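Q: what does this look like with phosphoric acid mono(formamide)ester bound?
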Amino acid sequence: MSILGKDLFDVDVLTADDVMSIFQMAKEFKESGFAKKWTSLKGKTICTLFFESSTRTRISFEIAARRLGSDVVNFTASTSALNKGESFKDTVKTLDAMGIDLYVIRHSEPGSPMMLKKYTQSLVINAGDGIRGHPTQAILDAYTMWEKFGKLEGLKVTIVGDIFHSRVARSNVKLLTSMGADVILTGPATLIPLNVENYGVKVSYDVKKAVSNSDIVMGLRMQLERQNSTFFSSLDEYNEFYGITPEIMKYAKPNSIFMHPGPMNRGVEVIESVSDSDSSFVEEQVKNGVFVRMALLNQMLGGVVE
Ligand code: CP
């Protein structure tokens, strides 16, 4: 099996072999350094379609595509003909007519990558659809863990915070459990989906117990823009009970690491003495995002690396 010619709507399209193949290729790209340019995707055109804000994902896809020799075009909804009444369907047909090989889409509506696929034969990567999924973030997170610990099986990963509104948490739960990691979710009860244990994770509402003996503690952003009611009293209260501090990190294993998909709200879900410490892998995650996305694009589009 391989991901050649497949869409990436979420991580469940990947087999364990696919994941390891992406990791191996990302590792080789990383060992070659940032300066090395490749030509494996010369002649391809990748279009980023971002209907929601992004810093890391959009830019790292663009860097990854260019480093493989692909052309990249960025579609900006706010300055497009969508504002003149053009439909999404006609927008996609118009872009297709200009020879797009692969779309990278982010949208606030869950299922938007599948909607895009209804109108195109080109490949589609989901770069975040509402609260549903963010597969490339999960793959780069898992890669970062694998690189640090040399394995995923048996790692204890505690994810802290607004699980309910987090597409990163959903994709991470699917990928990490499928690769044999033990995942524990913690946060205010109002922000943990009901019956989430059915997905093979444990839940604890006591952050100290949840973090105990963890290899990885992952903070999540409090996603206020997706919260349409009051899930907790105040950000200060959230920080007091669930903010990740050096005291909380002491419950984790001595060589544990802190991770966060970003963007971070410093002083809310984590304090600086953790996010800026030597055990913080936040910037390594961003760096790895480029190499993991290079591997994905290359394998999906059948690039030959020489
Ligand atoms: N992690 C993540 O998706 O970040 P951006 O919103 O900056 O792309």
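The CA atoms of residues 177 and 203 lie 14 Å apart. The chain is about 35% helix and 15% strand.
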